[in-house]
Amino acid sequence: MASKKELVKKSSVNIKLPKFISIGFAKIRASTDRYLARRPHRSFRRTRRRDYTRSLKMPGYWSFSADTIKTLFRHKKIFLLLALVYAILTIVLVGMASQDNFNTLMSTLTQTSGDVFKGNIGQLGQAGLLFMTIISGGISQSLTEGQQIYATIIALLTWLTTVWLLRNILAGKRVKLRDGLYNAGSPILPIFIVALVLVVQLLPFALAIIGYSAASATGLLNSGVEAMLFWIVAGLLSLLSLYWITSTIIALVVVTLPGMYPFRAIKTAGDLVIGRRVRIMLRLIWMVFLAMLGWVIIMLPLILLVTWLDNVWSSLQGVPIIPLVIVALSSLTIVWVSSYVYLLYRKVIADDANPA
Hints:
With about 350 residues, the chain is mainly α. It is built from 15 helices and no strands. The protein has one domain (about 55-115, about 120-350). It starts with a helix and ends in a 6-residue tail after the last helix.
């Protein structure tokens, strides 16, 4: 009678995988090992602070913002021309906000305000409501699918041109806007793919907004426990999107490098922000805050001025002052955001410390 070892030895079958499968598994194993070497921290495992600190030498928030403005101001002619080109393309291909909608909204607020708006504070409150309506797109016309595509392409080309100009200017080269417009558009497809990834990463935040609308309509936010649970879930979804897009926004600059592929850019950006993601995230939030502050500082006094002028000269109601300013501010905002992110990217790669 055969022993147990002999039976096991006879029953065992030596299966040899095809060569292409073995090579595939070897590549996956090597890729996983490289990823774990680049990312030393593990999910659901505590990492002590001394083990994840990664240097990031950066000026202060105001100082870095001032440096960005100074860089743009030193070359104001070329960047103002770029914003002008963006504004003209937007008006021609996409259109702008409706002056009729603005006049209707302004007259409606004036007639229905009653005792709500009185004196200077009342005028400021009315201007604030108009501003919030403008920001939320209340006076904008609905865009067709073609106009939406044009708007996306124009925004991406403006981003690419700003990054290309800054990269060459900081390298000490003398460039013209024409050079940027002709040469910056080559990675349009890779940056479009990265932008799509960014949109997908914003889905948790979009779910939080949809949930807020549904909860407000059903009165769920009026009760204590349910409201608390909702805000916890909505906050976690928003943080998840913010966590994801922090590296993807940096990838929008990385992908402009020659020969860079979109998903390789996303991987490289993830390696750059690891260990300092929160600090970069706070810088990006600060950038958004400054952009919004600029809109408030410019738009609120302008709305008050336009309201007063319309009351003095009724013929000015047909002049699209506010829509033109919206297009101009949108152009300047995308140039500012592109410059801020690119200069932030340069600060990040200047400190090439490895992850802890």
